[in-house]
Amino acid sequence: MNTSKLMTRVFSCSQQRATLGRPNRTFFRGLSNIVTTDKSKEIRVEEWENKDFIHNYQWLLKAVGYYNKSSVQARGACALFRAAKFGGLRKAFYTRGGVVDDFRSQQVLMTAHVWAVHKRLVKEGSDGRTVQEVLFDELWNDTMGRIRSYEFPELTINKHLRSVQEYCFGALISFDHAASFPTEEERLQEMKAAVRAHVYNHSDRASEAQCASVASYLLGEMRDLQEMDWEA
């Protein structure tokens, strides 16, 4: 798996899906729709703009292993996580989507975006597994940072992390279950149930249309990433 090409494909894919929830209306834009051009400041793969610096000190970068396969994969996984985090924090989820803007909902939506990438990485053999491991490490490291921001006593951080991981793993199992059905209609129905349970935390305030929109979005993200030719 070529990680640099993987990153280019994920971050520069044209906007293939125009709608979520209503015809001719963009509801959410996800990983597969993020365009990293100079006009888009939403999210970018980190790069050094000073090309002369890169050229002059390339020998040093090589010496410290910057271009090693494992280093490239690690940077790719970190960038993928940043995209997943960005996707999970989109305002549309918490406005039109009606999702409660709290720690748990944000965490589940970030995890859902990581899940969409994970579903593709499992197809990429040993390289995919390596990137996937770093991707989930980034997720949990970020989670610990977010937990610490609430100023809990340090001795309780791991306890809170385990609690978060418990409901995140529950969401992942439900998403996997929904994606396993053979027909699109069945997948959508099961994903709607998973979304209501985990994204909306069983809230009765979420409408059927909102659950369907988020479910369709997540399945679309997974499908788009599955269909991408990352080596092209």
Describe the structure.
64% of the residues lie in helices and 0% in strands. It is mostly helical. The protein has one domain (3-34, 47-227). The longest helix has 24 residues, at 125-148. The radius of gyration is 18 Å and the shape is globular.
What are its keywords?
232 residues; mainly alpha; 10 helices; 0% strand
Short précis:
By secondary structure, the protein is an all-alpha fold.
User: What general form does the structure show?
Assistant: globular
> If you average the pLDDT, what whole number results?
78
Derived from helix and strand composition plus strand pairing, the structural class reads mainly alpha
Strand content: under 5%
Computed over alpha carbons, the radius of gyration is 18 Å
Q: Count of DSSP helices?
A: 10
Beginning-to-end CA distance, first to last residue: 11 Å
Largest sheet: none
Pfam families: Ubiq_cyt_C_chap
Protein name: Ubiquinol-cytochrome c chaperone domain-containing protein
InterPro entries: Ubiq_cyt_c_chap (IPR021150), Ubiqinol_cyt_c_chaperone_CPB3 (IPR007129)
Family: Belongs to the CBP3 family.
Topology:
Blueprint: H1 3-12, H2 51-56, H3 58-63, H4 69-88, H5 91-94, H6 103-121, H7 125-148, H8 157-179, H9 184-199, H10 208-227
Helix pairs in contact: 1-4, 4-6, 4-7, 6-7, 6-8, 6-10, 7-8, 8-9, 9-10
